[in-house]
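Session log. Operator J.P. requested a structure for one protein chain; no other inputs attached. Running the standard single-chain path with token output.
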Amino acid sequence: MNAKVEIRDSESGKVLQEMGTVTYDNAGKAIQNCERWYRDEIDSYAEQGYQPEIVLIDIPSPAAELGKRGGSVTSDAKSAAARANGRKGGRPKKS
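Structure written below.
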């Protein structure tokens, strides 16, 4: 999974610095690694009176975005099929 890495002030939520992107499997380990990699920047903001924290913002994959858009499309045929199914009593009950 890909994520954008930011250093934010934990009190105000203000973005102090965008650090780039990271690829990860485990979000907890990714945050620990980023805290280690960006220790100098975090210390610098702490000295300025901020409460810095590392924030990961997920970046959706292009394939997921296309699937999301395609699944939300309603065609005339899909609408007609849904109406016809509704006349028959709707979705069958799980057995």
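Operator note: Residues 1-60 form one domain.
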